[in-house]
Write a structure and sequence with these properties.
Mean pLDDT: 94
Distance between the termini: 35 Å
Subunit structure: Homodimer.
CATH architecture: 3-Layer(aba) Sandwich
Structural class: alpha/beta
CATH class: Alpha Beta
Largest sheet: 6 strands, mixed
Protein name: Orotate phosphoribosyltransferase
GO molecular function: magnesium ion binding; orotate phosphoribosyltransferase activity
Strand content: 15-25%
Keywords: Glycosyltransferase, Magnesium, Pyrimidine biosynthesis, Transferase
InterPro entries: OPRT, Or_phspho_trans_dom, PRTase-like, PRTase_dom
Shape: globular
């Protein structure tokens, strides 16, 4: 679910402007999972554009507090959301921790890095939601550490049905600055893509794991 429509449209426009989101329906990308995709999203680029990162920081800060109340701690999911999560925590005057994909193999073998007390209210910041699996592993680690995870806030989601099911199963609310639907609407309106390309992108979103481009 998006925080609000105005933010969703503005965020989508920024992501397209800085090439954080690339649309290439005729020559698809290959994801690490092996899926073929007409879209590629790299929200790490946001950190390199001060005006965009400040916008994302400010929208996160006000909407997190509005939706979840002010938490005790902001947690970022490593590695993509560490930078923006830190900015949000700083803006809200809150402590920050980050969550590794798995515990370290040496030293204290931490998975949650930073100071976190049992019972503290935590909102998790994420950069991108695809299936939601890796994001929810971070939530599980925080819960195992004794945190009360109030919800997750992400920059962008592809809006896959499997992600919705995964978050529902985990009993966790997800809110995003923007999503796939708002992105496509804006991309057509601003002529990043034509109507035929829009149709390709919509077809992919229905079944991304089996989608192939017709030659």
């Amino acid at each position: 679910m998006i925080f609000n429509k105005d933010t969703a449209e503005k965020t989508a426009e920024f992501l397209l402007q800085i090439n954080a989101i690339k649309l290439n329906p005729r020559n698809p990308f290959t994801w690490a999972s092996g899926w073929k995709s007409p879209i590629y999203c790299d929200n790490r680029l946001i950190l390199s554009f001060p005006a965009v990162r400040n916008y994302v920081r400010d929208e996160f800060s006000k909407n997190i507090e509005k939706q979840f109340g002010k938490p005790d701690v902001i947690a970022g999911v490593a590695t993509g959301a560490i930078g923006i999560g830190m900015l949000v925590a700083e803006s809200m005057g809150l402590p920050f921790v980050y969550v590794r994909p798995e515990p370290k193999k040496h030293g204290r073998q931490n998975q949650v890095e930073g100071f976190l007390q049992k019972g503290q209210n935590v909102v998790v910041v994420e950069d991108l939601i695809s299936t939601g699996n890796s994001s929810l592993l971070a939530v599980e680690a925080l819960r195992e550490a004794g945190a009360n995870v109030k919800g997750m806030a992400a920059i962008f989601t592809y809006g896959f049905e499997v992600a919705e099911q995964n978050f529902k199963s985990a009993n966790l609310d997800l809110f995003t600055l923007s999503n796939y639907q708002n992105l496509l609407n804006l991309a057509v309106a601003k002529r990043y893509i034509n109507e035929d390309e829009e149709q390709i992108l919509r077809e992919w979103n229905v079944s991304p794991s089996t989608w192939t481009i017709e030659v």
